[in-house]
Amino acid sequence: MKTVFVTVGTTSFDELILKMTTTDAVQALKACGYERLVLQVGKGSVLPAPESCPDLTLEVFRFKNSISEDIGRADLVISHAGAGSCLEALGAAKPLLVVVNDKLMDNHQLELARQLHKESHLLYCTCSTLTDTLTTMDLSVLVPFSPAQTTHFAHFLDKALGV
Fold first, then answer.
1. Is the overall model pTM greater than 0.70, yes or no?
2. Of 6, 95, 146, 153, whose CB has the highest number of CB atoms within 10 Å?
3. By the 8 A CB rule, do 4 and 40 touch?
4. Sign of the CA dihedral 106, 91, 93, 60?
5. Could you give the C-alpha distances from 43 to 39, 71, 81, 120, 122, in angstroms and in order?
6. Angle 65-68-71 (CA atoms, 0-180°, nearest 5)?
């Protein structure tokens, strides 16, 4: 069953979770052939009920010891722009769509997403452009992220965070 896994990491990103369960987003996923949606909602206050997405099989959880299996089973990972979540999905060689939380101040997440997009490792958007991105995305343009690039990634993070 073609699966999308959405992760917000250890934070909360209710806007993303709400957007993923809208009729428009669900229809965009269905049009791409996805049948199953797994939402890792973290500390958020939004916990969608399975019947909130009648056109997809919906699974929801807050936290697990590891999300590696969920990432491994996914055909597409949609993630907040946290460095750990991005690296885990890219390291698993999964197509990655990063949704930047544009409500955050001092948004280093946007810098990270832009850089990895520039290198063709991921696609990125905000919640306001998510449905359009799901409708128009071409995952075939993505280039695998090699483990050798983690040093480059670490240097970029240090620079972005001012370390």
1. yes
2. 6
3. no
4. negative
5. 12, 19, 16, 30, 25
6. 130
